[in-house]
Specification:
alpha/beta, Spore Coat Polysaccharide Biosynthesis Protein SpsA, Chain A, 7-stranded mixed sheet, 8 helices, 9 strands, globular, binds guanosine-5'-diphosphate, binds magnesium ion
């Protein structure tokens, strides 16, 4: 064991503006967090100074890694790379803009303590606190997407898309080792794999303060994500809990 309690994975594409403040807040929060943690930034072939600002902001932090994809590979590919290199007992991935504030990890951690293998932040539960909403059209598109996913891919989850999810170390290879979708549809795929393998998923209401800068195009990316979600179901429907330790397909 590495002795690390937590890995914080931050996928970042052209984030030279938002990343420094985000990493600073993560560092400040970790300084008061009672455990040992590492921070892993995955620069996804950014054309700006994302890697440089990440390296500068993480200078002096005892366990920091900046990985870089060349060329751009997608948020899914970047999260997968970060999560498969994580050494902490729990690995969290979070969006670079910290739309869900890092302090909210305490709620996910409580879910793990209560037995969850996977804890996912949610904006769609009664107790979710949406302090700054996404633009109306994007929020509605998100709700339709979630309704579709709930109906056709996996029931029971209200919000698959919040960029704030944590996993017990033991499930990382079984889940992320099977993930094929490299762009926005990966959240659904990862959750679907986990469900087929019988892992316990807790959906946890969190705070969300939307940051209006976005790299998502709701219309074009949304349709692609629907296709990817169906593809995920097709690819992984044969999995059973007996496959947890089996050879990865
Ligand atoms: N690796 C990778 N990450 C991306 C890409 N596009 C966006 N991201 C990251 O995904 C996260 C969410 O992106 P954001 O633009 O805030 O999306 P939104 O909040 O859902 O509108 C941020 O950490 C981005 O840096 C990409 O092409 N590759
Ligand atoms: Mg965002």
């Amino acid at each position: 064991m590495s002795g690390l309690d937590l890995s914080v994975v931050v996928p970042a594409y052209c984030e030279e503006q938002r990343l420094p403040a985000g990493l600073r807040r993560i560092r400040e929060w970790l300084a008061a967090w009672p455990g040992r943690a590492e921070i892993i930034v995955v620069d996804d072939g950014s054309s700006d100074r994302t890697s440089a600002v990440a390296t500068a902001e993480l200078a002096g932090f005892p366990a920091a890694t900046v990985l870089r994809n060349e060329p751009n590979a997608g948020k899914g590919a970047s999260v997968r790379r970060g999560m498969l290199s994580a050494r902490g007992a729990i690995a969290l991935f979070t969006d670079a803009d910290l739309s869900t504030p890092i302090e909210e990890f305490a709620k996910l951690q409580a879910a793990h303590t209560a037995g969850a293998d996977i804890a996912i932040g949610s904006r769609a539960l009664a107790a979710s606190q949406i302090e700054v909403h996404q633009p109306l059209a994007r929020e509605l598109a998100g709700r339709c997407f979630n309704l579709f996913i709930r109906t056709f891919v996996m029931g029971g989850i209200r919000d698959t898309q919040c960029g704030f999810k944590s996993f017990r170390r033991e499930v990382l290879p079984a889940v992320f080792g099977r993930q094929q979708i490299e762009r926005w549809g990966f959240d659904v795929e990862v959750l679907y794999i986990a469900r087929r393998l019988g892992y316990q998923i807790a959906e946890v209401p969190v705070v969300w303060r939307n940051d209006e800068a976005t790299k998502v195009n709701a219309a074009a990316d949304g349709l692609k994500m629907l296709r990817e979600a169906l593809q995920a179901r097709r690819m992984h429907r044969h999995l059973t809990p007996g496959d947890r330790d089996g050879r990865l397909d």
